């Protein structure tokens, strides 16, 4: 894909037409090759773009408009269907290229395994990287039914790479007993069930550090986001998730990249999930992109 041309398909609302002039790059990772329950998240990025046309360009939360941030929608990374290893390699190479150009990477999944190669690339540039992870699930397995490339494993892989004490998970309400036990033993931070209040307590500890934020849409209760592959009751509200994004924006944390994953439009004919994801992305753009410096 040529970086000096706008994506020829649907683009996220107010996408800047020029890559070189943009501070951030939005890209899709349309992969759901390793899901353990319901596939369909590979269609998430395109649908989030399509429904973004219904967004207001102004955020009353942040008192900013999308015109105030230059971001380029590069479209989806072309990934080989059914080949997770090659897909992971291509994603990492792509993020390497964005970071070389000093762009803020803002990814859309796709299953959560796509965050793993992004983190590998981020860690090469930011060796003191910390991760804020919002999710219903721990994602701390070594493998799923003997397969190490699984959407249930990315946070364990990341913790082993950057050190478990640099991983901060919030909203967790599902996982194997062994996963919770491992996290406790190695000093990884896990906040069960809630996000906003425990996040506020952690943010001062991360002040000044480069931080990557990964959000699985299933951190939301299924009442707020039914369009995802592995729904799990007891989640947070969309209001709390938005407030958490704004808390990060108001902090001294250096957000150097982020993603939103696991939107599976086929399971939500009302399109509530895609529209919610679109609004979340707007707030991520306005709240975090200029915090990378």
From TrEMBL:
Residues annotated to bind Mn(2+): 112, 135, 137, 139, 216, 218
GO MF entries: agmatinase activity; metal ion binding
InterPro entries: Agmatinase-rel, Ureohydrolase, Ureohydrolase_dom_sf, Ureohydrolase_Mn_BS
CDD domains assigned: Agmatinase-like_2 (cd11593)
Keywords: Hydrolase, Manganese, Metal-binding, Polyamine biosynthesis, Putrescine biosynthesis, Spermidine biosynthesis
Protein's pathway: Amine and polyamine biosynthesis; putrescine biosynthesis via agmatine pathway; putrescine from agmatine: step 1/1
Catalytic activity: agmatine + H2O = urea + putrescine
The protein's Enzyme Commission number: 3.5.3.11
Pfam family, one: Arginase
Entry keyword 4Fe-4S: no
Gene3D superfamilies given in the database record: Ureohydrolase domain
GO biological process terms, semicolon-separated: putrescine biosynthetic process from arginine, via agmatine; spermidine biosynthetic process
Cofactor(s), names only, from the UniProt record: Mn(2+)
Biological function: Catalyzes the formation of putrescine from agmatine.
Family the entry assigns: Belongs to the arginase family. Agmatinase subfamily.
Name of the protein this chain belongs to: Agmatinase
Organism this protein belongs to: Metabacillus litoralis
């Amino acid at each position: 894909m040529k970086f000096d041309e706008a994506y020829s398909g649907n683009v996220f609302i107010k996408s800047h037409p020029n890559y070189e002039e943009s501070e951030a790059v939005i890209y899709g990772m349309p992969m759901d090759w390793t899901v353990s329950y319901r596939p369909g998240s590979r269609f998430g990025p395109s649908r989030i773009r399509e429904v973004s046309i219904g967004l207001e360009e102004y955020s009353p939360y942040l008192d900013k408009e999308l015109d105030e941030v230059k971001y380029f929608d590069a479209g989806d990374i072309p990934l080989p269907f059914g080949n997770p290893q090659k897909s992971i390699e291509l994603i990492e190479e792509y993020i390497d290229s964005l970071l070389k150009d000093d762009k803020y990477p803002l990814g859309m999944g796709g299953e959560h395994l796509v965050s793993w190669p992004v983190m590998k690339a981020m860690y090469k540039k930011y060796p003191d990287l910390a991760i804020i992870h919002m999710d219903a699930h721990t994602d701390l397995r070594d493998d799923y039914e003997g397969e190490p490339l699984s959407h249930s494993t990315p946070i364990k892989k990341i913790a082993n790479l950057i050190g478990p004490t640099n991983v901060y998970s919030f909203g967790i309400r599902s996982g194997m007993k062994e996963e919770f036990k491992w996290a406790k033993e190695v000093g990884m931070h896990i906040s069960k069930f809630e996000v906003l209040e425990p996040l506020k307590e952690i943010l001062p500890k991360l002040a000044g550090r480069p931080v990557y934020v990964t959000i699985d849409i299933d951190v939301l209760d299924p009442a707020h986001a039914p369009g995802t592959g592995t729904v799990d009751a007891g989640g947070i509200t969309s209001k709390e998730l938005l407030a958490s994004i704004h808390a990060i924006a108001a902090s001294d944390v250096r957000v150097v990249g982020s993603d939103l994953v696991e939107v599976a439009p086929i399971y939500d004919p009302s399109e509530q999930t895609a529209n919610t994801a679109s609004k979340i992305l707007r707030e991520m753009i306005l709240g975090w992109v200029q915090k990378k410096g």
